[in-house]
Amino acid sequence: MSTDHQKYSTENQSDAINQYAEARGIEIVRTYEDAGKSGLKIEGRDALRQLIEDVQSGSTDFTLVLVYDVSRWGRFQDADESAYYEYICRRAGIAVEYCAEQFDNDGSPISTIVKGVKRAMAGEYSRELSTKVFAGQGRLIEKGYRQGGPAGFGLRRTLIDEHGVIKGLLERGEHKSIQTDRVILTLGPAEEVDLVRCIYRAFVHQGYSEREIADDLNQRGVPTDLGRPWTRGTVHQILINEKYVGDNVWNRRSFKLKKKRVANEPEMWIRAQDVFQAVVERELFEAARRVICSQRSSQ
């Protein structure tokens, strides 16, 4: 079993499997359950991996595996992968029955065709869902809502309801609990905001390097938002991050369908300008960007 929405909740799957077994006089001796897993990859599916390991070891105390439906092996992008795990069971002499399917898993041409179609549909469901989720997240970005990640030094995550009414600040590690609530970025404490502005002015107008700015902050005993010493990198992130000029930028990196995380080209980023209260003026932000670009080109 694995978790999906509504009818695919582990509780509903378990009830259906128990009813199926009771109606046929089947005794359930063990349950393999991957709760809260998407099923896109075998990695992280500890229960499924344990099932396969038990079957291959030949030490099982059962001769039948009950599965809720074909998609519960996983919504793999390669439909043959779920077929392979069923084959491992059958090769070891362990039958597989599907409790919520309208066909008998008897090895007939019809059942083979239907399973193939359903496996392909399971993978396609994940692809379509990924596209829909991406589009929905993009719309939220354009409306100025934050999609994860820490606020950063000088900023705070603020929770609002569906009508835009402020409900309060979210501390580090806290998340919204109501689906219709949203998170926006707001200015943090005045001393942090002033310090961010000083960092920009020191870099652009006074010619201090990122390293020199970090050293100065550390000498003054000022910690980062994580309570750590400043480094050239943390100063650099403040100087290049567009949230400090009030812009909401998303999709710098992709991790779709649990595949390899990739850095996207800037033209793929989703950007909404002036949706947050800016910490620094756009002119100053762009000046800092020009200095950084000039430094890179001269290296």
From TrEMBL:
SMART domains for this protein: Resolvase
Transmembrane portions of the chain: none
One of the record's GO molecular function terms: DNA strand exchange activity
Annotated ranges, domain Resolvase/invertase-type recombinase catalytic: 1-144
A family per Pfam: Resolvase
Domain Recombinase: from-to ranges: 174-299
Alphabetized InterPro entries for the sequence: DNA_bind_recomb_sf, DNA_bind_recombinase_dom, Resolv_N, Resolvase-like_N_sf, SSR_resolvase
Full protein name: Serine recombinase
